[in-house]
Amino acid sequence: QVQTGIPATLSYELLARRPDLQAMRWYVQASLDQVDSARALFYPSFDIKAFFGLDAIHLDTLFKKTSRQFNFIPGLKLPLFDGGRLNANLEGTRAASNMMIERYNQSVLNAVRDVAVNGTRLQTLNDEREMQAERVEATRFTQRAAEAAYQRGLTSRLQATEARLPVLAEEMSLLMLDSRRVIQSIQLMKSLGGGYQAAPVVEKK
Q1: 4 found inside a domain
Q2: Is residue 36 one of the residues assigned to a domain?
Q3: Is the pTM of this model over 0.70?
Q4: Which residues, in sequence order, are CB contacts of 42 under 8 Å at separation 6+?
Q5: Which segment of the chain is annotated as a signal peptide (predicted)?
Q6: Number of structural domains found in the chain
Q7: Chain CA centroid to CA 49, Å
Q8: Which of 24, 56, 60, 108 falls 20 to 30 Å from 93 in CA-CA distance?
């Protein structure tokens, strides 16, 4: 008998190996990194060493300038006072990131659906195989009875041979079911990203 049993539990760790979901996770991470980069633009940027060597009078005068005048001082940038442009950039980046996250979530749902469909089909084939195996045993019992009757001289060789034909037909049906189960099991493993054993998720560097 071909082994195509389905594990009792199929966790997300199995799905996470799918190349399409891994790619989407990388895209989501990249979009989140872009949000962080856009947010980082809100922080002041300056080299404190640029103020070294200035005497107290110059420093006092320097820090009495208005906030917008600070941006014209070499080595100092206060992007907080360019909030309109930066806010627009941040919101746009957030929107793109949210869209990417939504696409990732949809990809996960699609993957779950694929697994559910393929798993259901395989389970159905497994159930059909059990019933077909019972039919095979039933015809074999009949064939053995016919052979025993022939051995006792109660029936002819033709009757004993004819009793073998249903067995062959049911066994062929069983083999065809096993073939379909193997194919469906492969489909299920593909939808899981490969096999039933969880493997480490590759992180993008």
Answers
A1: no
A2: yes
A3: no
A4: 79, 80, 83, 86, 90
A5: none
A6: 1
A7: 50
A8: 108
